[in-house]
Amino acid sequence: MSYLDNILFAIVLIIGFGYFISNIKKIYRNINLGIDVDRKDNSKQRWKNMAMIALGQSKMVRRPIAGVLHIIVYAGFIIINIELLEIIIDGLFGTHRIFAFLGSFYNVLIASFEILALLVIVSVTVFWFRRNVVRLKRFVNSDLNGFPKNDANYILYFETLLMFLFLFMNASDLHLQDIPGGYSHFIKAGSFPVSQFIAPLFDGMNNDLVAMLSELFWWLHIVGILIFMNYLYFSKHLHILLAFPNTYFANLNPLGEFDNLEAVTKEVKMMMDPNADPFAAPADGDETPAKFGASDIQDLSWVQLLNAYTCTECGRCTSVCPANTTGKKLSPRKIMMDTRDRMEEVGRNIDANKGVFVPDNKSLLNDYITPEELWACTSCNACVEECPVSISPLSIIMDMRRYLVMEQSAAPAALNSMMTNVENNGAPWPYNQQDRLNWKNEN
Amino acid sequence: MSENLIVPTMAEMLAQGKQPEVLFWVGCAGSFDDRAKKITKAFVRILNSANVSFAVLGTEESCTGDPAKRAGNEFLFQMQAMMNIELLNAYEAKKIVTACPHCFNTLKNEYPELGGKYEVVHHTEFLKSLLNDGRLSIEGGQFKGKKITFHDPCYLGRANKIYEAPRDLIEKLDVELVEMKRSKANGLCCGAGGAQMFKDAEKGNKEINIERTEDALETTPDIIATGCPFCNTMMTDGIKHKEKEAEVKVMDIAELIANAQDL
Predict the structure, then answer these.
(1) Do B63 and A422 touch (CB under 8 A)?
(2) Window A:207-266, CB contacts with B under 8 Å
(3) A442 close contact with B: CB closer than 8 A
(4) Name one GO molecular function term (chain B) (predicted).
């Protein structure tokens, strides 16, 4: 009896999961580069949101075609992966279809996996056509040029390949099961509504060859899954995991409510307090003065950074952005992609410098996101409302505007006059506050 | 001919030892912008005719700080907010109504954390409650049978999920309410939010207000209704750009109700 296969399988599993976990740790570390923000409140509502939006995909179906197809692929992904459990046990212990003892329930399981696999192939094919033949605007926008466009197609190819391997594995198995008198360990188990149409391909083939092919499909399938799992870290496909924490930790306040910067509150209160001594030493003297707004990823909150990793670049945000649809440079999707790219760059920097970030004279602002993009935003919240996984590109835009205005005094000239007016006249226009009630007596 | 609007100020009320039922926050547009002043007056006419006890801050009112905050100037915003809060708290304001969704959002959502906790309602909500309480009756009048489409202001709709109050009021006018292809949560911005009102747009191939005006014109309306002085400006400009000002009017819901009753 040879245990070589089983040992090899265990090694493959350990490498697959080991590399995956090491990258997950990196993601966790990078997200924690962000500043703290409390999202521990109202856990009941948060669980509900996660159940509805991530698990229940409630926002996906706002666009019915993509929504329904996505639910098929998602259900396929979750349900077919139950099969993984059997594959791993079989692989580690040298068994074959260990759950076959479940009898007719096993048949139902395998049959539903097969039907889902077929539906996934159909859905993924439609997705591919939407991207590459129909070329929906949000899939061909310039912010996807380069890797992002390929990434999207790689995912589709991978999913199709995995489904075919699964079906071919079953087809060859079925072929061997049906050999009169039985063949080796291929016991009669399972029901194969889809792969029964593939099985005839093996007719006339040498039985040993079919058994070898069956083994090969089995191996390619599981190794393929492990590779795909490890590809997540490098891909927009990471959303299949992060959509859950992201919807949980999302903002629960009304969309119109922007946070009040605490550091500013402190200073304003001191300015307005008639008893405050402007020359007094600050109570906590060692405190470094706060930086107002964000110019790089370390100035954003961990929720915003989690948002960036969660973004799957579907572009629904950009397709409803009033600035983008009227030809301005701003694309909310690009804001999220840029944030992730910069975060990865900072992460690589930390890896290369033994755990410490060495300044690289670059920043999210200017090197990735330009002021022109930031100033085109109308803060209308369409992008936030549209996002199927509760990402807020708007909050990043606002934090970066704050940096431009409060740290660099770099607002467009017209906004500077508006702000001067607010400061001097209590209105954004140059009218006298004493004239505020004049309308009462005008005709 | 000067009309007889009764507009008491909080200071006058206080001098008489009275507290109004509601404080009407007029806002900068409502105070200074010629078009928006008409909305302010229409709303006051309704308040007067419904015998609502209200008061304004008058010359004591100052910008909420909304445009400064959206532009990124948190300092200026919080200075404005704290001054206003000091004033509102000194008058012991409880309930505030405003016809500007930007003031509404800021007062309602961003002031509480800074010490300003009030019940804040948009004028469409307030008018709806007057209607529900039987203090206001709405009739179609000159608008009967007209085709009206409602443009959702972002800071009323998506920002605060108020979609029904303005529509309920419009429907009371015996009119045909038609929805644009993008409405409610999917509504398209008029282009003025986020302090865009006060600057030129970035380079692009179209102005946002033109895009939105086209949405509205697709419904072939007689009137485009709004509930925001800035949306009103943007849509009015859009209609002028399309040379449709003879056929299509842009009106605030308060104006529709006041005019329908010849107030």
Answers:
(1) yes
(2) 253-258, 260-261, 264-265
(3) yes
(4) 4 iron, 4 sulfur cluster binding
B63 contacts chain A (CB < 8 A)? yes
Is the pTM here over 0.90, yes or no?
yes
* Mutant choice from B78, B107, B203 vs A, greatest count of A C-beta within 10 A: B78
For A371-391, write each residue's pLDDT tens digit.
Answer: 999 999 999 999 999 999 999
Region B122-147: mean pLDDT is 95
Q: Give me the CATH code for the B138-260 domain, please.
A: 3.40.50
CB contact under 8 A, B158 and A256: yes
pLDDT tens track for B61-101: 999 999 999 999 999 999 999 999 999 999 999 999 999 99
Average pLDDT over residues A291-300: 96
The Cα-based distances of A313 to A239, A254, A308, A327 in angstroms read 10, 25, 10, 19
B186-231 pLDDT, tens digit per residue, is 999 999 999 999 999 999 999 999 999 999 999 999 999 999 999 9
Q: Tell me which chain A residues have a C-beta less than 8 angstroms from the C-beta of B200.
A: 412, 414
Query: CA separation (Å) from A392 to A96, A176, B259?
Result: 48, 53, 41
Expressed in percent and rounded to 5, the helix, strand and coil fractions of chain A are 65, 0, 35
> Given a cut of 90, is residue B3 above it in pLDDT?
no
* Chain B residue whose CA is closest to A292: B74
End-to-end CA distance of chain A: 102
Q: What is the pLDDT of residues A25-35, one digit of tens each?
A: 999 999 999 99
**Closest CA of chain B from A32, distance in Å:** 25
Whole-angstrom CA distances from B141 to A69, B49, B64, B144, B174 are 50, 16, 36, 6, 9
Of B58, B155, B212, the CB nearest to A436: B58
**A residues 299..338 contacting B (CB < 8 A):** 320, 322-323, 325-330
What fold, for B10-131? Rossmann fold (3.40.50)
Predicted interface score ipTM higher than 0.85: yes
B10-131 and B138-260 share one fold: yes
Tokens representing B234 are 């943007």
Residue ranges per domain, chain B?
10-131, 138-260
pLDDT of residue A1: 45
A5–chain B Cβ distance below 8 A for any pair: no
